[in-house]
């Protein structure tokens, strides 16, 4: 499995003891940096789950170097195209009144960089590709179709709702959340039944599976056999950054092991529960995740 992150981010997570107040300085000694961007997170989670999942995409500047160094320390294989622009820094503030997240748009990437990335992917001949996260400035949805169509691999995508209905190719799976389902289909998505109808409509546009993440309501899987849902596991949530990436990683790890789609969905929910229990996009312990999946109940929708 090879992941592509076209717009990686160094994730800076700051925990503050008091709610933020306009015009006031808040101080903290609790801050950490994680290598981030959705595809990179998937590589980190999959590697920790025992699935070989090198990361590629674009990296540049000092934050790009920090991301590369972190991946090396964690033993996550990487093969990025170096760009002239500067990889972004995204900030999360965890305060007693909730979670604040600010994502930078990222650098401008040139068309020639996309050509180099397509070549990089071709050279590695992955069995499966995962393209995840926002696109940096200068890059359109056609770059994703190019990557997916450059070889015989099947491709998973996790991108904004405005893209999900616009790809030309056919894809293995996409992982929208509620807002992305609504944006991709133009439907209101409030109830689980709304999500199932929207996911079924989205599936018709070229996905074998639609894996919808529903926050504390768990996840929904729509395939040719219909829709099933797995409620979330009750856990103490530290923050939900990376939760969707964890869900997708668990599902892909299940498929890579040859598990049934129901078992892959169960694993996805266990992996996501572990990730929401730690701050930022750091990798928690995944010990026992495959055994613990039996605790996840599958319901038909
Ligand atoms: N409060 C929660 N309690 C337990 N599990 C949760 C909670 N919130 C999220 N999860 C788990 O994480 C999965 C993904 O969460 P969510 O729907 O928030 O993803 P997302 O919006 O794609 O997140 P992100 O874009 O931040 O990665 C859910 O399907 C669920 O299994
Ligand atoms: O701006 P994008 O590319 O949509 O999302 C980037 C991001 O929020 O996604 C990950 C969590 O899913 C973080 O590592 C990272 O900061």
TrEMBL record:
Enzyme class of the recorded protein, top EC level: transferase
PROSITE patterns on file: PFKB_KINASES_1, PFKB_KINASES_2
Keyword Cell cycle applies: no
GO MF entries: 1-phosphofructokinase activity; ATP binding
Occurrences of domain Carbohydrate kinase PfkB (ranges): 5-284
Signal peptide extent: none
UniProt-listed Gene3D superfamilies: 3.40.1190.20
Entry keywords, A to Z: ATP-binding, Kinase, Nucleotide-binding, Transferase
Top-rank lineage group of the source organism: Archaea
Enzyme Commission no: 2.7.1.56
Family from the record: Belongs to the carbohydrate kinase PfkB family.
Protein name listed in UniProt: 1-phosphofructokinase
Biological source species: Halobellus litoreus
């Amino acid at each position: 499995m090879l992941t592509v992150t076209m717009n990686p981010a160094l994730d800076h997570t700051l925990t503050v003891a008091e709610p933020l107040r306009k015009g006031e300085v808040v101080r903290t000694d609790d801050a950490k940096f994680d290598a981030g961007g959705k595809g990179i997170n998937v590589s980190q989670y999959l590697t920790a789950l025992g699935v070989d999942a090198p990361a590629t995409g674009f990296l540049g500047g000092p934050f790009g170097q920090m991301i590369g160094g972190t991946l090396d320390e964690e033993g996550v294989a990487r093969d990025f195209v170096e760009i002239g622009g500067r990889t972004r820094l995204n900030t999360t503030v965890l305060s007693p009144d909730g979670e604040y997240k600010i994502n930078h748009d990222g650098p401008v990437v040139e068309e020639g960089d996309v050509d180099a990335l397509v070549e990089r992917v071709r050279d590695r001949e992955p069995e499966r590709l995962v393209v995840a996260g926002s696109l940096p400035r200068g890059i359109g949805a056609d770059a994703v179709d190019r990557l997916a169509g450059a070889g015989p691999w099947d491709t998973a995508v996790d991108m904004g709702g405005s893209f999900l209905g616009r790809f030309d190719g056919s894809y293995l799976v996409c992982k929208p959340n509620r807002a992305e389902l609504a944006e991709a289909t133009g439907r209101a998505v409030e109830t689980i039944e709304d999500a199932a109808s929207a996911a079924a409509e989205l599936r018709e546009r070229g996905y074998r599976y639609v894996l919808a993440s529903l926050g504390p309501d768990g996840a929904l899987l729509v395939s040719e056999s219909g829709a099933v849902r797995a409620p979330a596991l009750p856990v103490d949530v530290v923050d939900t950054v990376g939760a969707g990436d964890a869900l997708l990683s668990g599902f892909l790890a299940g498929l890579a092991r040859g598990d049934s789609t129901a078992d892959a969905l169960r694993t996805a929910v266990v992996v996501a529960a572990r990730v929401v229990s730690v701050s930022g996009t750091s990798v928690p312990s995944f010990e026992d995740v495959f055994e613990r999946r039996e605790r996840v109940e599958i319901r038909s929708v």
